[in-house]
Design brief:
Blueprint (H helix, E strand, L loop, with lengths): L1 E4 L2 H11 L6 E4 L10 H12 L7 E10 L6 E2 L2 H16 L7 E12 L2 E13 L14 E3 L6 H4 L3 H4 L1 H16 L6
Parallel strand pairs: 1-2, 1-3
Antiparallel strand pairs: 3-4, 3-5, 5-6, 6-7
Helix pairs in contact: 1-6
Amino acid sequence: MIFASSNRHKYEEFRRMLSDLIDLKFLEVDYLEPQGEDTREIVVTSAKWLSNYIREPFFIEDSGLFIEALNGFPGPYSSYVFKKIGNEGVLKLMNGVENRRAFFISVIALSYGRGIEVFEGRVQGTIAREVRGGGWGFDPIFIPNGSNKTYGELGDEKDRFSHRGASCRKLREFLMRFGSDRLP
């Protein structure tokens, strides 16, 4: 099965979480990603477009950080916002803000012979007051509920807590039920 993305970090996370089930190949590709407010709609539209070029089963994933005090910003624009202002910029926007509630969402679209299946994971949490730990993207500033560590401080343990881990577990259940080797 193929994971199509321009983000190798995502591939590494999925490969780690699915390695006992499938041989996941990475197709590094930039693809049409329409701008919009609905992450699910974005990923389904992108998967339909990619299915014109990729003939074997593949999946893509899109995610976003939604901060309550910022009316859901950066949301589906998370990648762009991270590239432009990074973690420090988001923390600057949150300076003096007491409500630090946020959630991360991950939406996977699996494209195969019978169509497209969608799997969503969502994790509630808070925005840290400073950058903590490593990782990539917003990992060093997002603290999932049930932890006192940021994603960046969790290392590989992040998979148990993360939005991507949650959507991947749903994909995994589907592949186990359907049979990943029998996808048309």
